[in-house]
Amino acid sequence: MPFKEYNSNLKLITMKTILHIDASARLTTNSVEEYNSISKSIAASFINKWKENNPTDKIIHRDVGVNPPNFITQDWIAAVFTPDEVKTKEQRALLSLSDTLINELEQADIIVMSSPMYNYGLPAALKAWFDQVIRINKTFSFDLTRGDHPLEPIMSGKTMVLATSCGEFGFGPGGINEKKNHLGTHIQTMSHYLGIDTFYEINAEYQEFNDDRHKESVQNAHNKAKELASTLSNSYISTLQ
Ligand SMILES: Cc1cc2nc3c(=O)[nH]c(=O)nc-3n(C[C@H](O)[C@H](O)[C@H](O)COP(=O)(O)O)c2cc1C
Questions:
Q1: Per the confidence metrics, is the pTM higher than 0.85?
Q2: 23: CA distance to ligand 1 center in Å?
Q3: Is the CB of 113 under 6 A from ligand 1?
Q4: 61-94 pLDDT tens trace
Q5: How far is the CA of 206 from the centre of ligand 1 (A)?
Q6: What's the CA gap between 116 and 23, in Å, rounded?
Q7: How remote is the CA of residue 101 from the centroid of ligand 1, in Å?
């Protein structure tokens, strides 16, 4: 449950927790600027602006590009489907990373996720994170009495801000590569099972062209990330009646 404080103008400020997930294999600290991850730097623009407005909010950061979660295994799946009361010590150990990642998600009001486009979709490391987190009776329930849609998310009310970068361009609606976009579309579909009700996506394109269109696209993405951070943080402030 988020706690609350009042600022000097007697506005009610609800403290938020942000879960910040980066996924590019690239860092943001390379000495050669162009080797740095664009998607991570756009997410950082959002986070830095958020911190300016909400310096005491909790931010949980994971870089799955640098520290990828394990891929799930047959034993992992068996452990997930074993009732808690009869789980073995080994099965509990096998699920401990998943438990930790889900606990981080449960705390989060906002998820700021950054991802490169790799082979028209998300990196395997980020998919591994989703596979560890979207788990029966933890993040979704399954009930055949619901008919053709037996899955339902357990959590709700969360917001996701997704920052992406790609080498080509035109992946949006009506764009020349619209049909090849399996990045934002896939993440948005999965995000339903994280309890995401509101989804924003900010894209930088043209990285492989390294031209003015690329510079403009990256600049616009940073501006949008900062604007969205301000707009969203204002939306959590309400004036005392
Ligand atoms: C392994 C790999 C696969 C890529 N596949 C695609 C792709 O399918 N489509 C595309 O537009 N760009 C592709 N790119 C380019 C990246 O999306 C681009 O460099 C992006 O800026 C990477 O994100 P980052 O800057 O956050 O690391 C690929 C790059 C790499 C390294």
A1: yes
A2: 12
A3: no
A4: 999 999 999 999 999 999 999 999 999 999 999 9
A5: 10
A6: 7
A7: 26
Ligand 1, atom 31: closest residue by C-alpha:
118
Closest C-alpha to ligand 1, atom 22:
116
Instruction: Give the model confidence (pLDDT) of 160-197 as tens digits.
Output: 999 999 999 999 999 999 999 999 999 999 999 999 99
Ligand 1 centre from 73 Cα, in Å?
Answer: 27
CA 165 to centroid of ligand 1, rounded, Å = 7
Does ligand 1 come within 6 angstroms of the Cβ of 24?
yes
115 Cβ below 6 A of ligand 1? no
SS3 of the chain: CCCEEECCCCEEEECCEEEEEECCCCCCCCCCHHHCCHHHHHHHHHHHHHHHHCCCCEEEEEECCCCCCCCCCHHHHHHHCCCHHHCCHHHHHHCHHHHHHHHHHHHCCEEEEEEECECCECCHHHHHHHHHHCCECCCEEECHHHCCCCEEECCCCEEEEEEEECCCCCCCCCCCCHHHCCCHHHHHHHHHHHCEEEEEEEEECCCCCCCHHHHHHHHHHHHHHHHHHHHHHHHCEEECC
CA distances to 25, 42, 51, 121, 218 from 204, rounded to whole Å, are: 17, 9, 23, 15, 5
Domains of the chain and CATH, by start: 18-238 (3.40.50.360)
Whole-angstrom Cα distance, residue 29 to residue 46?
A: 18
Token output for 150: 């037996």
Q: Is 54 in the pocket of ligand 1 (CB under 6 A)?
A: no
